[in-house]
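Support reply, case 0932

Customer input (verbatim):
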Amino acid sequence: MGADRSRADSLRWTAEGTKTFFGALDALPDDRLDRLIALDGWTGRHLLAHVAANADALVNLAHWARTGEETPMYASPEQRDADIEAGAVRPAAELRTWAVRAAETLDARLSELDDRQWARQVRTAQGRGVPAEEIPWMRAREVMIHAVDLGAGVGFDDLPADFRVALIGDIAAKRSGDGPALTLTATDHDRTWAVSGAGDPIPVTGTLGGLAAYLSGRPAHGVTGPGGPAPELPRWL
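Our regenerated output:
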């Protein structure tokens, strides 16, 4: 696991994030799901279908961990995209029900794993081999970040502080080597992070919430570089 998180942390954040995501979703009437959100031309329907399909995909990894039978998250990237597009046109009530049931099924499957199964290697959609105890962290990121993406009043500052610390560390590591070199300093936490990349490191400062938003490629208020805005980053997740 990462230096800033344990399996217990990730399971707790998955539970908290699921509550946050569906609380935000419940605040949105069906017609709001038809609106575009700031994610590659997706509507709220696409986002909800993605979160539901992600839970189904992680159930596959939980099955792999429990049985040893190789079960990829998705049949292919093309199938993943097709499932999201198909899900986005389902009736809103059906789409909401799918998302809830998929989340409940994932929670049930994860609760069945023992220590040996948590240690079993599975593979992410990007092809990385990871121990199964990474599954709840993968889910926590999805429900926490996409709760913000719903646009229902949840911001990165509303997410748990320890989750934001772990998220910044995770994204900083994954962004290293791709893009500008950065040194990130939190103004509300005694912590810095480094992103390796091209050129001399550019100092970037902001709150934990601002840095998490910035690194994930979302609008980030109060995040600054030397003498002006921080370098723009593409969306992550």
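We compared this against your earlier run and they match. Two observations from our side: The chain has two domains: 7-154, 158-229. Helices lie at 7-26, 44-67, 77-88, 92-111, 115-118, 135-149, 161-175, 208-215. Please reopen the case if you see a mismatch on your end.
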